[in-house]
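[INFO] parsing input record for GP-PDE domain-containing protein
[DEBUG] input buffer:
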Amino acid sequence: MLLRFRGAFKKLTSSLSTRVYTSPSPRMLMTTTANSRSLPDCWGHRGASARFPENTLSSFEAAIRDGAEGIESDVHVSLDDVVVMFHDPDLRRTTNSSGLIRERQWFGEDGMNKVRTAKAPHQPIPTFEQTVALLMEPENQHVSFNVDVKVQNDPTRLFSLMHKIISSYPEWETRLAPRILLGLWHPSFLGPAKEQLPYCRRSHIGDSPSVARKFFWDDCEVFSMSFAALTSADGQRFRQECKAGGKKVMVWTVNEPDHMMEAVRWEVDVILTDSTRTWLDLRSALHADYDKITAQYSRFFLWTSLHFYLPFLYIRATLNRDSLERVAGPFDVKLSPFQVTIASTIAWWLGIKA
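[DEBUG] output buffer:
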């Protein structure tokens, strides 16, 4: 019975098409429509990573040239104390090399400064220092920088290295620090962030409104949540709580136009996307005729994908929390093996990846 249901569900969803709208040029880079309706900012997720290798200077520069108000990237630290912009703890997935970043030297004969991306155009891995230098160029000093702090890091070591780079610039406290947003997954990183980078705004990155409320509400002014997590009834309540509490909401990773329109209806503050041009074109069209463009996008997709159903959301949040706790320790009370086993079994059966 369950297998027949799953097969019928996949057949239904595969028959549905997604509407895509391309706006006329030139773009209108505004934050409100003609009738003063606010629209979300555009931040490039790992840069303009739909078109360029993720987390590279070329990707960051492309997002900025597109008109994005911010860029997002991830940080790890090499064996010789160089902060590098990279998502995975291991080099294998996106480069021509392999090995854990924390076990590799940046400089030297086999240094990571010689590594190139597997995706063309083949690019070097940028450092945090190089990325900050890009953002401090005169034409880029309006751009915000969301630093996704991976839990494989030692927060004290990482934040100390980041502070040395940030504070090396003249007038850094007014020209740079206010533009940096620390993205934290694990509550154990809050203390070191407040102690060593007190001038940086803090956000929680996650996919569980309940975790956000319990562990991060008092210490973060921004909540960067997965798109799916905000589609549930609890996600709606959380959005309302953020609005009432003066908290900003960012949503990731939003690449489909109908998902972007849903985020607009939610009145989030920032859309994090790999496809910066797609959101900026759509936003420009909304500025021109909000009602006409909005009418072209339905909410039907919320009922045609398992990703937006409560069991999936629970499984995904449980597995993600378990993976964080395996690396950085329990949030408070560690998830029970029974919870993790049940979630893992159901996820395997449904083909869900955490």
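[INFO] Confidence is low (pLDDT under 50) at residues 1-30.
[INFO] shutting down worker
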